[in-house]
């Protein structure tokens, strides 16, 4: 599904040409082929199709590669694709374990072309505006960061791979690496300790796959202490389908508070004026390009990320989300998974970070 979203966005990206796709599952190739037909018309017939990574690595003539395979396959896929002379965008999470993520970081450092970790949430226009304003000091000295995602349950995926932590890394890695990445970016510091209270309380309870019950967290509260003294919190519910805004972020500093609501696209600025004084709330709306928004399910973020990635591929801009960024997000998620299972605070030092 995410691969199809990438195809639809690449199809409208100026200067980009889709030349090859690969997937070992025939139904996924069919789905991608349908998407290409909708996006490219008759030109879709020119796109090469491969049913193995090995065949793709040998036969595809590409400048850049997007990896949107199941989380637990990323290292195996990359072992074959690092040999190609091409830039790489690898979807989040970078890997399901810290060891695999470290291996990818080491290989990416010696890869001749740009390596980019796919973190779409950075590029949602409302989120990007929020990040820029907080980092520019609009709330003063940042002290508290709160992120909420209240959303629908995990969707069915090929082979139901996303029902088990062994394949995903766990919900706090699979889903929440986005938010831990945002925390690091906004706070501008590294995590020191993590506490997560979470469980699988509502979703997937009656599901069985080859007799096995899913084991993925569907709700949690996570607090993260950063080295610079800022505290951050993530409030996750995956059984809140009817929530008006799927994501909300609040940054509170010594001068003001700034909120962003997504998909409403609203920024709400609330300066400190004293309890008895009149409120001076400012509301602004962040516009998302309709074509970019229509091409995916991430409020245009996939398109804007691809534009930035393309600039890096052409040597016209930096890699904005590195393999190291991917590792750090996986590590915080791993700490949260351990914390939820063992009901204790986990320090990043325990994990070698």
What does this structure look like?
- By secondary structure, this protein is of the alpha/beta class.
- 34% of the residues lie in helices and 22% in strands.
- The protein contains twelve helices and 14 strands.
- A nine-stranded mixed β-sheet has the order 13-12-11-10-6-9-8-7-14.
- The longest helix has 20 residues, at 323-342.
- It starts with a helix and ends in a 6-residue tail after the last strand.
Give the helix/strand layout.
Elements: H1 2-11, E1 20-22, H2 26-40, E2 48-50, H3 53-59, E3 64-67, H4 74-81, E4 87-91, H5 98-110, E5 115-118, H6 125-135, E6 142-150, H7 165-168, H8 171-174, H9 177-187, E7 191-199, E8 219-226, E9 231-237, E10 247-253, E11 256-262, E12 266-271, E13 282-285, H10 290-294, H11 301-313, H12 323-342, E14 346-347
Parallel strand pairs: 1-2, 3-4, 4-5, 6-9
Antiparallel strand pairs: 6-10, 7-8, 7-14, 8-9, 10-11, 11-12, 12-13
Helix pairs in contact: 1-2, 5-12, 6-9, 9-12
